[in-house]
Specification:
With 241 residues, the chain is α+β, with helices and mostly antiparallel strands. The protein has helices at residues 4-18, 22-25, 51-67, 135-148, 204-217, 229-233; strands spanning 36-38, 40-45, 72-90, 93-103, 105-116, 119-129, 151-167, 173-184, 190-198, 224-225.
Length: 241
């Protein structure tokens, strides 16, 4: 039985396709705010021997910031898991598909892409929740996507770390993620990162202003990383057609 809300969603899709708006349906330059990821990444260290020390040093600084009471902890999550990446290129565009599984993170298939060429500050982010029992189905799905691409790359990384959802007095929510990334199966490349992402700001200007504020308070300005995780950990050559 289809619920009323499901029926409304289906009706919206049908209306969009029969009223000559098919181009609008696929116009990725006009994604709503909820389909955008606006965040800034900071690279604590590229030396795998110093990752734990660098993360501990930042956490000490972050702890002092929290002790000042400028924001309260709304939620805290510890996570660990594996991300399998499928970097797909078509014409002049690149799309990073990510299949994620792990502890305290529901399995998810995500695709990310730059909204402004050359910048990872604002990216389109489309998420589809999947089940743990479906890795073969996901890989088959991605095999079809890759077959349609001009070229592609496949690789996996392991992530572990902590997520803080901070809440300010005005209700503004900010996600702070502190984590390490290992290239798998061989952990030859291990790095530490911090990410800051305002979650409920209404527009990009407010998001950037909030990120700038936290960046200054946590003394992160010298550690800004313009590259995405996919950029940093992708293999140099190979796995392409």
């Amino acid at each position: 039985m289809v619920s009323f809300s499901d029926g409304s969603a289906l009706l919206d899709i049908i209306r969009g396709t029969i009223s000559g708006e098919i181009d609008e349906l696929f116009d990725l330059s006009k994604l709503p705010r909820k389909m955008l990821e606006i965040e800034r990444k900071y690279r604590l260290t590229q030396d795998k021997e110093k990752v734990d020390v660098a993360i501990a040093g930042f956490l000490a600084k972050f702890g002092k910031f929290l002790a000042e009471g400028k924001a309260k902890i709304n939620k805290f999550i510890t996570f660990a898991g594996v991300d399998q990446y499928f970097i797909v290129r078509k014409n002049e565009s690149e799309y990073a598909f990510r299949y994620r599984v792990g502890a305290n993170r529901p399995p998810q298939l995500t695709v990310k892409f730059q909204m402004h060429k050359g910048s990872n500050l604002i990216r389109g982010e489309l998420n589809i929740n999947v089940r743990y029992e479906e890795p073969e189905r996901i890989r088959a799905f991605m095999a079809v996507i890759c077959s349609l691409a001009d070229s592609y790359q496949l690789f996996s990384i392991q992530q572990s770390g902590n997520i803080w959802i901070l809440e300010e007095a005005d209700g503004n929510l900010i996600e702070v993620v502190v984590y390490r990334v290992d290239r798998v199966p061989e952990a030859q490349q291990v790095e530490g990162f911090v990410e800051i992402e305002p979650l409920n700001s209404k527009n990009a200007e407010m998001v950037v202003a909030t990120i700038d504020k936290y960046e200054k308070a946590l003394e992160l300005s010298d550690l800004v990383c313009a590259e995405s995780i996919a950029d940093i950990f992708r293999p140099k050559g190979g796995n392409t057609k």
